[in-house]
Amino acid sequence: MNVRLHLSTILYTTFALLAFAGNSVLCRLALGEEGLDAGSFTLIRLFSGIIVLLLLWYLTQGRRAASDSEHTQGSWFAAIMLFIYALGFSYAYISLDTGTGALILFGAVQITMVLVSIFRGTRLLGVEWLGLVLAFFGFVYLMLPVLNTPSLWGFIIMTLAGVAWGVYTLIGRGSVNPLADTHYNFLKTFPLMIVTLIILLLLGDISLSVDGVWLAIVSGGVASGIGYAVWYRALRGLSAVQAAALQLLVPVIAAVGGVLFADEMITLRLMISGLLVLGGILLIVVGRYYQLQRLQRQL
Known about the structure:
80% helix
């Protein structure tokens, strides 16, 4: 039984991490080679996620959902954060490579969660401060003005997307029924999607292609909708430290995907910055765990 549980956890985790990285690759391909505009990618991605999450929610929880519906309706604030993340994610990738975008997004998410924790009164240990400083200098190094520096606007927009996703993640920590709340959060982005569609139509800023639309559908339905649901299943077999540490692999997988599918290059600057940012975050995540374990043993 334990072997089956461990195997399912490994499979769920592997699929989820590939799905998270896949979002970056799919977005870059859709906006680049297929010529889909960022706004349309966002709307198609969210709408596809709504449909898939609706099906998953109904098939797994539909009958008992009626009695629990008052506790599992998501929140409008979470929906706004989700929409800001999705829109910023798409527009940032107009000017960022796959791996660079994933590194900025992931780093911003983790640093946001740490800063919120500090704001709420959590005292950081010495190793956590060291990790935070390393991650900060990793971002500074990434953006130092040289020939292959990423777009400043792309960096800012992706950072905002990461902050929004970090806040969304913190909101979701208190969820009693993550799948149902995720379904309702996606559904509540629909009014914002309508407003965005009207703005795109008024500006005439819509560019569609068959392949681009399909990439957006896969991103929303599979990489986002199914990916999030599978990740929640994987979390049942992972500790908090394992879950946080494993997510360090997402920017690495995304960078490899960019090389394989989008003909991108992994630069020395991205490698050094990635080591600083991800290494710093790893110190924050793992350092506190092992330092607290040692303190407990001393007591």
